[in-house]
Amino acid sequence: MIRQFLAIFRARSMEFLRDRGTFFWNLLFPIVLVAGFALAFGQPDEKVFKIGVIGPTTGIPAILSSPQFQQVPYPADQEAEALKKLRQHQLDLAVAPAQHRYWMNAESGKSILAERLLADELKLAASSMNPSTPALSLWAKGAVTGKPIRYVDWAVPGVISMNMLFSCLFGVGYVLVRYRKNGVLKRLKATPVSALTFLVAQAVSRLVIVLGTVVVVYAGTDFFLHFTMNGSYFDLLLVTVLGIVCLISLGLVFAARFRSEELANGLMNLLTFPMIVFSGVFFSLEGAPAPVRAAAEIFPLTHLIHAERQIMLNGAGLLQVAPDLGALALMTVVFLAIAAWLFKWE
After folding, report:
1. Does one domain contain both 69 and 185?
2. Is the same domain home to 303 and 234?
3. Same domain as 244, residue 180
4. Average pLDDT over residues 290-315
5. Above 50 in pLDDT, residue 241?
6. Final residue in a domain of this structure, among 144, 164, 189
7. How many domains does the chain have?
8. Each residue's pLDDT tens digit, 133-180
9. Count of CB atoms within 10 A of residue 179's CB?
10. Measuring CA to CA, which residue among 276, 275, 271, 251 is closest to residue 178?
């Protein structure tokens, strides 16, 4: 069985490496995408203020409801999360209307400017032009400091995870459908190779290839862009491996029955599009409606990206990202069970 596994593993790996177009695309695409984000979003947007509103919005100063301010709601028990975002320059101001309190980042020019606008509004209220708004003296001020998080630092986990998604789905699902269509699986059925040995060899081959690609892409881009890394590389590696295994399992579901490459390709694209849009690859869902954020939880990419960002940006450990790891592990088991139930050689 080990000899059969190694033979299939080597054959699939060499097939990928000899396809130079696919090989270099898997390496160059995420590098070009990350470099593009670094150039396009290297400087912060000076036109819009992003405000974290903690708890009820009743009594919020009118200036913060103007079009120039984007409000991101936070429940009252997530004050620490809002202040962490403010410390990382991902928010320009944090306000708690129910407490008559606000926080600013003394190291952020946008935060200082936003505070001045807020102070002007509160002074205006103090002069009785708007008596319903609490006066400046009634609002307590808090200040935080911290290193800014660039957009490219925030985006790189999403870009690399998206590349992993395509590599796993199409590198496993599409390839096995092509094998079935071309009669390769039918011929393998007549050999002593079991379905389990064949699928495990395919999955391990893809795991090694995708993990190697991720390491090369991350190390290469980090050499020039110096990504923020506040957590453990070992924890990040474990999360990445689990994410790859989960996505490979999802690819095996598509490979289980389909004979048509066109149908499999269409269904995989139909799945990947909402995953990319709603999993937080390119933008945060913090300000999105609650149903959208709840729906995003069904996608493995959501949990993978969230866990990676927590480790890289916030220094979280495996215990802090345990809910995401549990979701990925559960999805992996479900996908493998479905793939095993549906799989046919022909």
Report:
1. no
2. yes
3. yes
4. 90
5. yes
6. 144
7. 2
8. 444 446 667 766 666 677 788 888 998 999 899 888 888 887 888 888
9. 19
10. 251
Q: Over 70: is that where the pLDDT of 43 sits?
A: no
Q: Mark which of 122, 144, 166 sits at the end of a domain.
A: 144
Bridge partners, 96 (sequence order): 101
Segments forming the whole domain that contains residue 81: 49-144
Structural domain includes residue 44: no
Q: Which of 133, 107, 109, 105 is nearest to 121 (CA)?
A: 133
In the structure, what pLDDT confidence band is assigned to residue 16 with cuts at 50, 70 and 90?
low
Predicted pLDDT at 28? 64
pTM, 2 dp:
0.69
pLDDT exceeds 80 at position 46: no
**Are 240 and 272 in the same domain?**
yes
Residue 47 pLDDT level (bands cut at 50, 70, 90): very low
Query: Is 305 contained in some domain?
Result: yes
Task: Give the Cα separation of 159 and 31 in Å (integer).
Answer: 9
- Going by C-beta distance under 8 Å and a sequence separation of 6 or more, which residues neighbour residue 210? 164, 167, 168, 171, 244, 248
Starting at the earlier edge strand, list the strands of the sheet with 140-144: 69-74, 49-54, 93-96, 101-105, 140-144
> Could you report the per-residue pLDDT of 175-233, keeping only the tens digit for each?
888 888 888 878 877 787 777 788 888 888 889 989 998 998 888 888 888 888 889 99
For residues 178 and 296, state if they share a domain. Answer: yes
Cα gap 171→251, rounded to integer Å: 8
* Same domain, yes or no: 27 and 100: no
Spatial CA neighbour of 167 closest among 93, 247, 236, 253: 247
Query: Same structural domain for residues 34 and 68?
Result: no
